[in-house]
Design brief:
333 residues; Helix Hairpins; Rossmann fold; six-stranded parallel beta sheet; four-stranded antiparallel beta sheet
Length: 333
């Protein structure tokens, strides 16, 4: 790796300088500073004169020092050129900028694993305007994310240091889509230990893993095989509904989504009926249901329904207008 080669050059320069300083001190009896100065101007080939008159042995030593120093310098310049030409410097600067952006995030989402499932997750988060970070250990996938200007961290998501680098302490949610259920379990345990309040959604293949994942702190466990089976039978018995959902989810232009709006204690909508909240007047957004936060839902709620703290309003509409609604009409958690 080029970083190791750069480190090797620095070590080689240090050795040459130390040997040069020690050589002039022992051969001609110079002081340490004069010996160091002579060594530096000799290696740098700046053309300054000798500090003191050199003995025959001192001149022979100087010839050897010039050859070794010049060779080391040429090698160092070639490594530095490769560092710039091969794009390593650009990657370092981009990584530094990315880490700075990650450190400023709050209530963001962390996606662990750019697997086949993870790609759909990342695409949906990006399409709906969410702030998110992807963690993956595959350099090729990291390069792909860099090319797409998606915030990312290269590393093992089961390690505390990697999750801390993703600012887990301020994250609003974590999605783990790693290939192995055991890895997803470790991610859930580690994440809950670092941030007990973070919402965790994980993927599971085996049914036995669902209970274990919930026991260690996963808020929701999604089983792709189960969802795939339900999708297949739904396609057979209710094709129009499935077609509508497909159009909604796969739209690339005006993305339509079903979203939720959380009512907090400082929301302007608090203790107001839906008719006075302003949400029903937003063009392109429809209130589908309203939940009291305890798992019960009131579908197509009446306009007289009073909005209370911890209510969750389920809306369907164009993503951009829903985002405007979330920012301007109410304050979400």
């Amino acid at each position: 790796m080029i970083y190791k080669r750069l480190l090797g050059v620095l070590v080689a320069f240090s050795i040459v300088i130390c040997i040069g300083t020690l050589g002039y001190t022992l051969i001609d009896g110079w002081g340490l500073f004069d010996s160091l100065y002579m060594t530096v101007i000799t290696i740098a080939s700046v053309g300054f004169g000798e500090v003191h008159a050199l003995s025959l042995n001192g001149r022979i030593f100087t010839i050897i020092l010039i050859l070794c120093g010049s060779a080391t310098m040429m090698y160092g310049l070639s490594i530095l050129t490769a560092f710039i030409v091969e794009g390593e410097l650009t990657d370092v600067l981009r990584r530094r900028k990315m880490n700075k952006a990650i450190s400023k995030l709050e209530n963001h989402y962390i996606l662990c694993g750019l697997s086949a499932t993870g790609r759909y997750i990342a695409g949906e988060l990006e399409k709906t305007g969410r702030n998110f970070i992807v963690i993956d250990s595959d350099p090729n996938k990291i390069k792909e994310l860099n090319d797409a200007n998606i915030l990312n961290i290269e590393g093992d998501a089961t390690h505390e240091a990697v999750l801390k680098a993703a600012n887990i302490g301020k994250a609003g949610g974590l999605l783990s889509a790693l290939h192995a259920d055991s890895d997803n379990l470790f991610v859930a345990v580690t994440a809950k230990g670092l941030n007990p309040s973070v919402k965790i959604v994980v993927k599971a293949i085996d049914e036995e893993s669902e209970r274990k994942l919930q026991q260690v702190g996963a808020d929701y466990v999604v089983m792709p095989n189960f969802i795939g089976g339900m999708r297949m039978v739904s396609q057979m018995i209710r094709p129009s509904v499935v077609s509508f959902l497909d159009v909604m989810l796969r739209s690339k232009d005006a993305a339509v989504r079903v979203e939720e709006i959380n009512i907090t204690q400082d929301s302007p909508m608090l203790n107001k009926p839906l008719s006075d909240s302003g949400i029903l007047e937003v063009e392109g957004v429809t209130v589908v249901a309203l939940s009291d936060g305890n798992g019960s839902y009131e579908f197509n709620p009446p306009k007289s329904r009073v909005v209370r703290e911890n209510d969750v309003i389920i809306v369907m509409g164009i993503v951009d207008r829903i985002l405007v609604l979330q920012k301007k009409v109410i304050k979400t958690a």
